[in-house]
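On clarity, I found the account of how folds are encoded harder to follow than it need be. What matters is that the chain and its backbone geometry are given together, residue for residue. The format is easy to grasp once an entry is in front of the reader. For illustration, here is how one protein appears when written out as sequence plus structure tokens.
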Amino acid sequence: MQNQSFVTEFILLGLSQNPQILKIIFVVFLCVYITTVFGNLLIVVTILSTPALLGSPMYFFLSFLSFLDACYTSAIAPKMIIDCLYEKKTISFGGCMTQVFAVHFLSGAELIVLTAMAYDRYVAICKPLHYSSIMNSRLCGILIGVAWAGGFLHSIIQILITVHLPFCGPNVIDNFMCDLFPLLKLACTDTYAFGLFVVSNSGSFCILIFSMLLVSYSVILFSLRNHSTEGQKKALSTCGAHITVVVSFFVPCIIEYARPPSELSFVNILEVFYTVITPLLNPLIYTFRNKEVKTALRRLWNRIMFVSLEK
């Protein structure tokens, strides 16, 4: 009996029980989701169609980051948006496990990509003479492979344990998505050890990587004192964009996973931020703060208009 799971679906309470508020949430987050996916895919298409950008490791990683953000928000937002139209919000057992796997797989990969982007900026600013030899296409390909493999390993370990937990009674999740801690509370067994594993696997890893990134950016900013004023401004602009994305991604994750599996009154707001809002920041930050991307976007738009006029 302990090895069987009798729960075939979970009931999600969502963000609110008020129908009027749900209508507002539906409209707002539908617009946010469309903007997020369109903006991130636009960055991917722009970089892939611009050889000068695609040949740069920084923009190569940026295109991959944008692709991950589009996939990441698509693993959560559509279900949340559609659920706003229904009084009873359910998700199948298999769908719940798939969502947990997708979220941790993509977020794990994104964590490694952000680390790779920080290393790229460190080499570009601190070792400019060796930049082309260090950040070659082979290394960039290896780092992307590590991102895929690391995200998969991070997620598969947790999901293999979660899927074998016995769910034999309660099936109501006080959330708009499936995640590890809400599922642990529903399991018909002692999950204290697994809760500690989640903290060590997700929380501690996030803290370690975030601390390393802060140290690396501190080294980068300290090394800028020897650069020209124009070089400092350009480096600060690029690093500022990266730091903003890193903070918006890591801080909510650390608060969410680097804690004991207990109740937090603001956990839903926190999860909305890093699953829906944070992926939107990527196209906004890198589009409006980056001259190269804006120039490439204008050229892409001009090519599209030229083709349209020819037809």
The chain has one domain: 9-310. The longest helix spans residues 93-126.
